[in-house]
Amino acid sequence: MERLSFTPEDREALAHFLGQLVDTTILTRREIHDFLDYCDLMAPKKGEVIADIGQVGESLFFVLEGQGCLMAQLPESEMEIGKIMPGEMLGEMSFFDRKPREVRLRAGEDTRLLRISRTMYDRLRLERPLLAVLLLEVAIISLDHLYRRTSSEMAQINRYMYRTGR
Hints:
The chain is an alpha+beta fold. It has five helices and nine strands. The chain has a five-stranded antiparallel sheet. Strands 3-8-5-6 form a four-stranded antiparallel sheet, with no helix packed on it. A hairpin with a 4-residue loop joins strand 5 and strand 6. Helix 1 (8-21) packs across helix 2 (29-36) and helix 4 (118-127) crosses helix 5. The longest helix has 36 residues, at 129-164.
């Protein structure tokens, strides 16, 4: 996965992006810029694996542009079971519970990701605890979005199956 350097324009755009995710009444623009010092900018191409089945999450990602796809491995192929859209976090489950991934994370199209490694997250927790707490809140919200979207899709499938089974 290609790692990019932050340009001043990238930093400003990323600070704006992050400012939309967190309560800016408790987090200053400077603190948002400081958070970027703990991060990398990544650019996986369409179809590229971001993280694979069986790996323990050593990074978590914000989807800036494009989309992340959650792929289940079938005997002969893989099947998309979910999408992570811009503004959402990717890879947080394995990152926080430190259990091997059960799905493959793949770029659904050319994508830009903001990545924070475990090492940098550990530094963030010590050096900037407020930022770490806000990051956890964003992770909870991201998981909630995924859960609600998946629940809604499952309900639609069940309604479809129930109606056509009569």
